[in-house]
Amino acid sequence: MKIETIVFLMLIPLAISAQKLNHKVPDPKKDRELLIGYCDRDGFKTIQSNFDSAYLAEYPIYQPDNATISQLKTKLKGIKVTIVMGTWCGDSREWIPRFYKIMDQAGFKYKNLKLICVDRDKKAPVADLPALKIERVPTLIFYHKKQELGRIVEVPAGLMEKDMLRIVSN
Hints:
Blueprint: H1 3-17, E1 23-26, E2 33-39, H2 50-61, H3 66-75, E3 79-85, H4 90-106, E4 113-117, E5 139-144, E6 147-153, H5 160-168
Helix pairs in contact: 2-4, 3-4, 3-5
């Protein structure tokens, strides 16, 4: 293998990790901003949108089921989660703050979370996005040892924490 190829292959992870976190773009439908690409929870505070106020309102009022949280705590070891969401999306505004409240109470290690924000066409400058086959947002995908365990698409079937427990218990 040529040295140029080896150097190039070594630089790919650096380029991916150097992608700007919490990138903002104008929302073409409203006089607001969207987050796009890889994000974290801190990004919600940085945009002028309905998402930041919805997050701040929804997070404190949601009260997860304590018995389910206790069970979930024991099941999260080795679990990774990818969320694809839109800061423009009503379901994301409702369910993503609830996800964070559940995971905060369950002691989830956020190094195991990949948060991808998409535009209104469900696109983002993220290389692995097409492979996730996202049709609706938010989509929460749970993995163990790189194996997909299950998804919550758009809205959970019942209480989010119960759906999450069912998925990670498989």
